[in-house]
Amino acid sequence: MRLHTLKMGLVALFATIPALALAHPGHEHTTSFMSGFMHPMGGLDHLLAMLAIGLWAASLGGRALWAIPTAFVGTMLVGGGLAVAGVQVPFIEQGIVLSVILMGALLVGAARFPVAICAGIAGLFAVFHGAAHGLEMPLNANGAEYALGFAVATALLHLVGIGFGAVIARFQTPIITRVTGSLIAIAGLFLALI
Predict the structure, then answer these.
(1) Tally of structural domains, the chain
(2) Membrane spanning segments where (predicted)?
């Protein structure tokens, strides 16, 4: 069973690195979907937050495994739509960095709240990430394809976090989750300084 979990984690990880499958580098921005897909992959702040959401969902288990990532992706799409529609979402960059710091802190503290509250926390953070994606959509991009791209990339990053969390749970070493959370929080503090 451990080997199967490890294999699934590796499959999810490699699925998030589409550039490895391209025979000719530089084509990643030729389609609206790929442009959207690559946006979450291009920033450490986005990567850390997405992985942390998956890891937090895995550490909570049960309904949280699907509810937290689903709330994040759904609300992120709303945030992207708001930005594309010209609605000003305040403090986008600060909200993204804060999401990294707080998600790391939630992992360090092994925070356990009702699933609805956890989904709400994830959704709040997702608005900022979605708004950033929406604001950075190329002018010539198809909005629906671009949104699908960043939603799929985000979901895959959540799956990588969930897979990592599943591996941790198999070895029954929750300290790894807390150490990972502290590294995420420290990285978020570093991002706040630059």
Answers:
(1) 1
(2) 39-58, 65-85, 91-108, 115-135, 147-168, 175-193
